[in-house]
Structure formats: structure tokens, C-alpha cells
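Hello again, I could really use a second opinion on something today. My current little project is about how a certain protein chain folds up. You're getting the sequence in one-letter code plus the fold written as C-alpha cells. Here's the protein in full, and shout if anything looks odd to you:
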Amino acid sequence: MSKKITSTGSTEVLYHYSCKERLFEILSSGYLKLTCSDIIMPDGTLEAELKAAAYHPVVWLTDSLSAEKMGLDGCAYNKKAIRFTVRKTADMEKWTEWEPQWEMRHEWKQAYCKGLNWKSWYISEKAILFDDILKVENLVDGTVYFEREDK
């Protein structure tokens, strides 16, 4: 079922990918939540994992219509199944401009970005409210869960 509402605003957009298993949680919350920024290199310890999860959380975005080479493979769920189209706002910044502020270790950055379309990445340090979500679609079966009539 697709819910349509009318809205006005910019047509410049970015995309956020997620899995179907998280869709209800996201739609119910009314926003895309902050998650780990991955700035801190994991070392296999619980302490590092907890520190990394809490360090400069962000919402990950991309300017790519494709979820390929976004670093979404290797998860228990298909994180390429659901695409959120979001209105680009001033809070969203190119990852290549944001990341140097936090001094990601060079060897970690090389390993983290290897083979990925990292130049397409954007981040937001603020949760993205549903007001800025323009479309929610399932890329596997074509279902459109939500779409604004006037983007």
C-alpha cells in the first residue's frame, strides 16, 4: 500500500538504503536514525566496537541510484532492498569533506573504502525526519510504500 501526500521543496535528492526487516521500525519512528560513522578502526574487542558505535553517529546517504558498491554486502539482511529518496538539506555533507575532520586512520580508510563507490557518500549528523523523505520503495519487488505527490 502506498501513502501519498503533497509537499513542496527542493528536487535535489540523496538516497538511503536499508533492509525490509527494518522498514516498519523506520516508518513507525518517523525518521532515519543515526548509526555508527565507522571512523574508528575495529580491532575485534568489545571496547572498540562500543566506542566506534558511539563516536560521531551519522545517517549514511549517497547520490547513487544504485546500492551497488556502497558497502552494504555481507550483512544478515539485504540492505540493498529498500531505497529511501530524501530531500537534500544543508545538514547533509559529502563524506569526503566530512571524514577528514575526524582523522580516520589512513590504513583503515584504505581498507574501508576499497572497491566501494565512496565518492558518492554523504552523511548527516542529524536524524532525517519523515518531512524530508520523498519516496520509500522496495527495489526487490517494486512496491512503493510512500511517495510525495509534489516533490
Summary: Residues 1-10 have pLDDT under 50 and may be disordered.
